[in-house]
Amino acid sequence: MTQKTIWFESDGIKLHGTLHLPDNPKPPVVIGAHGLMSNGDSPKQIALAEICNGIGIAYFRFDHRGCGQSEGEFNAVTSFDGRCRDLLDGIQGLLDMNITDGRFALFGSSLGGAAVLATAGRLTPRAVVTVAAPVRSEAIRPPYVNDANNQPMLESLNREKLFFDLAERIEGVKDILIFHGDADPIVPYENALEIHHLAGEPKELIRLENGDHPMSDENHQALFMERTIAWFQDKLAGS
Fold first, then answer.
1. Among 3.20.20.70, 3.40.50.1820, 3.40.50.2300, 3.30.70.1400, what is the CATH number of 2-235?
2. Is the whole-model pTM more than 0.85?
3. Residue 213 has pLDDT above 70, yes or no
């Protein structure tokens, strides 16, 4: 298993990514999108990358504009549409490199899950997995993140640029596995019910009992890994 640093551009902004490659040539790939205040080094994505590689699937994680090692000042470049373009350009750039076999799946957590839902209908992913994804920006409750230290940075963001409503876009999404804690204080569980109702078949919703927004319960984390890897393995199999 190897890691390859990849740089790509979106709206002229240089973005940083890491591609985890298994030993087998031309593997399928999972592409991940992180949450609002996170980056591509999130523990969920690193753990997913390691386990995916173990079953012959590549994993690409990247830093959205203004995050991690990517260019841009966070409060100046962050917008929901910009995050969607980051994801689309990252997918296309990766596929154009011809390292993988063209089969791909998407993973997104929180706002990253919303970006995945917003773009999946325009693409042909073999599978989609979301965690605590909101359907619309108004559904997100303060303080928006679990870490109060990030609140000053959040308050500097232009809320209009973060507006989205995905209700009409979710209809084009299928092969989706949805995780959501039913005690999530930031993105209420009702969002998961709406995603499941609107999405196409096949689809599955896993309710994490008493689960919070970051999925901090170790049993929930173990269930998430087990079911997600099985979903990706099943959907990325075959030609």
1. 3.40.50.1820
2. yes
3. yes
